[in-house]
Write a structure and sequence with these properties.
By secondary structure, this protein is an alpha/beta fold. Helix content is 35%, strand content 21%. Bound molecules: S-adenosyl-L-homocysteine, iron/sulfur cluster and FE3-S4 cluster.
Amino acid sequence: MNEETLNKVIDESKQGEVTILKGNGASNGKKLYIESYGCQMNFSDSEVVASILTETGYETTRDVNEANIVLINTCSIRENAETRVRNRLVEFKGKKAKDPEFVVGILGCMAERLKKSLLEEEKLVDIVAGPDAYRDLPNLIEEVGTGQKAVNVLLSRDETYADITPVRMDKGGVTAFVTITRGCDNMCSFCVVPFTRGRERSRDPQTIVKECRDLFDMGYREVTLLGQNVDSYRWNMTSKGEIKDVSKPTVNFAQLMEMVAKVNPDLRVRFSTSHPKDMTDDFLKVMAKYENVCEYIHLPVQSGNTEVLQRMNRGYSREWYLERIDAINRIVPDCAISTDIISGFCDETEEEHRDTLSLMDEIKYDFAYMFKYSERPKTLAERRFDDNVPEETKKKRLTQIIDKQMEHSLESHQRQIGKIKKVLVEGPSKRSEEYFCGRDGRNSMVVFPKGDFKKGDYIMVKIKECTSATLLGEVV
Ligand code: SAH
Ligand code: SF4
Ligand code: F3S
């Protein structure tokens, strides 16, 4: 699979899920359609946006054709992510020409990165709202109504939308995302996120626990705690670890995880993304202690070569990373591990690339997201280094990485054959009406004959067959 197809698979699996129920506010007769691209944070943010706008009277729709307002929540992580959104905006241009009342707004990382230019130079949109400006959306929409162009791209040091109950978008109501931190302070040299999402800030732990408890009461059985680097979650502490308010408790990620794990033993807890430089043994011990904290860690490595990691400003070496993998295997036995890898970063030599392949052989990841390096404006890498690995070489290296991962994913699944897994039923399988699917704790998709189960049930499945993408089994 090449990167394009891979991205498509990832993105398409998430698309079209943006349906929101009718809001609590009195209807204003306008229909809203939200489309989301990019990471889970964006999907989670779209639920916050839906909540803010339904409160002010908008009704959401699944059908773009009946919408009065379309909001596109965008991603800037790689150039092709932005290209897709641009193409989509051009599609809407036709609809705008026919219906002058039709409003198109752009949210998220691309809005933050490009600011006014999409509005003024390219005239593709009416509203531009950055990730910290969503509370202002009702005003921005109103401004458009009066014929103005509406922009708010102010980044905030403390906005966490902590008090907003997101309007959940998935139909089944079994799994949900809960944002715990926003922004990122890491400045990996290839990455645009610190520029589009601003400074890192942690959300009040009590609001996180309450949201998880409410979700459980509504029938949800799995929450995924989200942050660009969940391990740097810290409440009531400065980035240097000093206590901000001595009269109040401090909470780190290990402690937060314990608070959430205790909400209910039947509420599964996942989290993403872990950072190799910050993931502690204390946290791993909490994972091991609670059965409902899923035995799965996404630990992006980016490269297997220490010099490349240094150029990437990742804050760890190959050896440090391998030691963290050892710690996972030691403390949380049988934990599934996935990663992100970038091929062809600035100055990457063939030998450095081979270090990535050898690291993969050493760890044998259960799953991976793999990308070609894409230079992003304003990043440290863009300013300091040359994007000098030829496109062909990037592609060739990426293919080698993907091929290797396909083997490892298949082997990982083959090792599961014969095992009995606890699976949370998510709903009908795409494969056939006769089958249902759900995930095991290691985050593998398990498909099994339908039986008498419903979404949200926990069942035990014995694994009989597999592909690199799914496990097939029978309920025992
Ligand atoms: N916060 C997460 C990653 C968020 S972005 C972390 O630190 O791991 C998701 C992934 O996109 C990254 O892990 C990286 O592999 C990839 N990525 C980010 N910027 C990129 C770029 N400029 N080119 C190619 N891939 C990139
Ligand atoms: Fe980007 Fe690095 Fe922050 Fe992840 S940790 S969002 S890769 S800067
Ligand atoms: Fe993309 Fe922004 Fe997420 S750049 S990956 S949507 S934080």
